Amino acid sequence: MSDNISLGIDAGGTYTDAALVDMDGRVILESKKALTTYPNPLGGIQNVLDLLDSETLKRVKLLSVSTTFATNTILEKNGAPVALILIGSQKIPEHLKDNCAVVKGGHNYRGAENEELDLDAIREYVLSVKDKVSAFAVSSFYSILNPDHEKAARNLIHELTGYPVVCGYELAHALGAYERGVTAYLNASLLPVARTFLEAVAEETERRGMSVKTTMLKCNGAVAMFSEVMERPVETIFSGPAASVLGASFLSGKETCLAIDVGGTSTDVSMIEDGIPQISDLGATVGGWKTKVRAIKMETIAAGGDSHIWVNAANVLEARLPSVTIGPRRVIPLCRAAVMYPKIAETITNHWAAHNMSLNEFMQKTTLVLKSGYEATNLSPDEMKVYQKMSEEPAFIDDLNWKDFPEGEIPFDIVETLVNKRLIQLIGFTPTDVLHVTGEFSEWDVEIAQLGARKLAEIFNMAKEDFCRFVKRKFAKIMAIETVLFLNDTFSRDELNLFADKFGGIGDSSYLRFKVDIPIILIGAPVRCFIPELGEFLDAEIIAPDHYAVGNAVGCLAGKLAKRVEIRIEVESKEEENGDWTLRYNTFTSEGQRAFSNKDAAVHYAESFARKDIFKYMNENGIADADVEIRVKAKEMIYNPQKPPVQIDLSVEGFAENKV
User: Which of 401, 395, 392, 397 is nearest to 347 (CA)?
Assistant: First the structure.
């Protein structure tokens, strides 16, 4: 064992994984899993650390973390209250009308002031809302070319309140003042959540006698110091999928591969090429918010190990083959629920099941409901009435008393609302139960999984083993189709489903398969069980590497320190009488605007500025210039081939190994 020991922790939707890695030999020394705790993931992190060797932990020099705290905070709308100020002629979005103001100002596409900034309007708005918020966000037209108005607004807000202010130009370098505003708004709302979580993790390592460099994986596959993440937490949304593709590459030794990460709630498909994750050209979208955050390109499927497997009444008679739905809702698997609630098997056995033609998502022969334990607040009278019918113990929804509702019918719309609010928890049959029936996974209660499989199989007059094999193939088909869509989106999902059903082993034939020319690496427990079924649809090298179950925790350690600088060069052109062109190249950096008459001079200045900025960032993180890899890309925008380009976009990226 070398002295270069690192610890990776991934707090996922179901499990919190930890891996101790000897980075010199790329050897996994020890790995453990513990259930993730809600709403604070720190408990799960503490539990998984308790399972690791305490003496080895004290030798750790580097800690890298991946967690869903940013994504969950946005989805659950639990962020800090923030006011957004949009500068320029912008329309306030409907969902932000109560905490957003638009004031005059902004710049044009050449960085010149378009309209004088209305500081009086900013002052009036800030004073009117300062007692209702804890931070501000600011975004101005073309601030990526000239951030003066955002800076002026920030200075004024600091003077008036002393509150944190997040500016759009600090987080994004792409056009789109509103999207930059949303990015700044979300970042501001995450500041206290990030600080609380990261400080707690740091304190936990200190309590255990660990002296470590602490980093966190961002959604673009790069890592950042805790101190940086506290300032820019929005960049950590989707850090889990980023960890999966990095972990897949690390564990398999494949610099270029496609990763399929099967989690509890969803399955993510992503790709790494020559050691660098593919990045989406579009900003990340989370909870309906479209941002300018650069994130890895991925396809996310609402189907995972804990996804609800249920039967729709409308499909019972029509289906030639069993017709079941996998997901999109996540439930507690029967096999795990039986450990938590020992009487559940008796409840299912004695239940007088609803008629097949009455089945829906909440009324199933294997689905039970109970209170989740979350505090019930701000409910309508009908919602409260439904909530109060729920018990602390699992029960079938049709066994509850609904006589006080019209005609005694169950208000499924209200039930769904309460499930979405996480006040009602569902227990049901899942892919995890399927694997307990097939004998490929046996962590929890096997007998109740078999009971659940038998109840569902009876609907289609099948043996439970045949039913589970069918479900496994269906789950593999979902993974295969999303893989093909990731690599080539010219197909429609319906077309691919039809093809897969006809030729992929579900229907009449299995003579044709999709061919994939790069290795497919499976991550997540227990993905190895799906290799044979996935191979029915995909002609590819499919690998579940050693330690695949903790691939995300390992992936946290595979991320590199990275800094990206984007500089726009606007080209002014004038055609002379003799047909020649007089050109002027305007560069826009944080140092301001500079003009050049020569393209090479402008590009050289921009690249030199970017390199200087990158080396400064790396030096601050303890990385020497010689250890930084630089990649430069220049893209010319040409609207008319007979004329010079109108714009040159220069992208300079620096990468360095994350090490002490």
Answer: 395
Report the distance separating Cα 189 and Cα 300, nearest Å.
25
Q: Mean pLDDT over residues 390-402, rounded? A: 91
The structural domains of the chain, with segments of one domain joined by +, span 82-189, 307-465, 560-656
10 neighbors 552 (Cβ within 8 angstroms): yes
Q: Quote the percentage of the chain above a pLDDT of 70.
A: 95
Predicted pLDDT at 456: 93
Q: Which CATH class is domain 82-189?
A: alpha beta
Q: At 219, which amino acid appears?
A: C
| Mean of per-residue pLDDT scores for the chain | 87
In this predicted structure, what is the pLDDT of residue 420? Answer: 86
Indicate yes or no: pTM above 0.85.
no
Q: Which long-range contacts (CB under 8 A, 24 or more apart) does 484-490 make?
A: 484/514, 484/516, 485/299, 486/258, 486/269, 486/270, 486/271, 486/297, 486/298, 486/299, 487/258, 487/271, 487/516
* Confidence bin at 640 (pLDDT 50/70/90): confident
pLDDT in tens, 144-170: 888 899 999 999 999 999 999 999 988
- Angle, to 10 degrees, between the axis of helix 431-438 and the axis of helix 464-487? 130
Q: Which residue has the tokens 């726009």?
A: 568
Q: How far apart are CA 236 and CA 654, in angstroms?
A: 19
Residue 473 half-sphere exposure toward CB, CA atoms < 13 A: 20
- Residue 278 is which amino acid? Q
If one counts every other C-beta atom within 10 angstroms of the C-beta of residue 61, the result is 16
Burial tier of 30 (Cβ tally within 10 Å: 0-12, 13-18, 19+)? middle
Instruction: Give the pLDDT of residue 346.
Output: 93
